[in-house]
């Protein structure tokens, strides 16, 4: 349930604004009408140049939350428009709609930075549902920095640091990578082959002395008594287990 503060914040927000760039008037108007019935604010453009002009005016009053983009435009392709938008650094959600329904066209559109691809003909209910998904994703708060925690060891992937019993320790890049793998698989036995492949690459498999040295260095930084490890346990004949 929303708190009163969340309700006030939602009520004070402007309607979500969608730009439709589509050269076929009947399709453009049908989409606009359907979205307006869902309480979205809609602006339209019949070609890529007009669409870019609307997006590049730099006026907060016409900032957009979603772009619905046709591929076959009279002045430029939707692919080119999508490329320009992403080249300018915009992360505006883009939904491509197109009669081009081949896998190659879909892949090209997504590779250029589109967030979704809906082939024509489509139902308005599906279009609106896809718009809702993209707008929800765009509106969601950023995820917190990823933390891995095992007992009293905390590894922060975002900040690339490690706390052991509340104190930050210094690790080399390989030590950090090795600890990350262990903490992603707590209480699992990881073979030397698995660890070598993930940290040093397939060509290094067999050079277990390097791995064992890094494990020893990790123990010196993690364990209260490295000679009697509590976290990084050797499983003789198998590999290592982090617990």
Automatic annotation (TrEMBL):
Recorded superkingdom: Bacteria
OmpR/PhoB-type domain boundaries: 145-243
GO annotation (BP), single: regulation of DNA-templated transcription
GO CC, alphabetical: cytosol; protein-DNA complex
Pfam families: Response_reg, Trans_reg_C
Domain Response regulatory: 17-135
InterPro entries associated with the record: CheY-like_superfamily, OmpR/PhoB-type_DNA-bd, Sig_transdc_resp-reg_receiver, WalR-like, WH-like_DNA-bd_sf
Key word Transmembrane helix present: no
Record key words, sorted: DNA-binding, Phosphoprotein, Transcription, Transcription regulation, Two-component regulatory system
Modified residues (4-aspartylphosphate): 70
Listed GO MF terms: phosphorelay response regulator activity; transcription cis-regulatory region binding
DNA-binding stretch(es), residue numbering of this chain: 145-243
Protein name in UniProt: Response regulator transcription factor
């Amino acid at each position: 349930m929303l708190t009163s503060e969340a309700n006030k914040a939602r009520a004070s927000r402007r309607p979500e604004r969608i730009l439709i760039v589509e050269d076929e008037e009947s399709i453009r108007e049908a989409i606009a009408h359907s979205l307006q019935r869902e309480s979205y604010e809609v602006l339209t453009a019949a070609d890529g140049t007009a669409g870019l002009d609307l997006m590049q005016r730099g006026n907060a009053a016409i900032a957009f939350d979603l772009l619905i983009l046709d591929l076959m435009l009279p002045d430029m392709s939707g692919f080119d428009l999508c490329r320009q938008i992403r080249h300018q650094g915009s992360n505006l959600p883009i939904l491509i709609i197109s009669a081009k329904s081949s896998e190659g066209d879909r892949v090209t559109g997504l590779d250029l930075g589109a967030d979704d691809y809906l082939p024509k003909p489509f139902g308005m209910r599906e279009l609106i549902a896809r718009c809702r998904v993209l707008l929800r994703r765009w509106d969601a708060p950023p995820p917190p920095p990823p933390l891995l925690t095992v007992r009293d060891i905390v590894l922060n992937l975002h900040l690339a640091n490690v706390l052991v019993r509340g104190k930050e320790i210094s690790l080399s890049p390989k030590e950090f990578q090795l600890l990350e793998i262990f903490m992603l698989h707590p209480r699992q036995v990881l073979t030397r082959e698995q660890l070598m492949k993930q940290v040093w690459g397939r060509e290094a498999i067999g050079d277990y002395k390097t791995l064992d040295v890094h494990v020893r260095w990790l123990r010196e930084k993690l364990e209260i008594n490295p000679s009697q490890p509590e976290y990084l346990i050797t499983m003789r004949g198998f590999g290592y287990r982090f617990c």
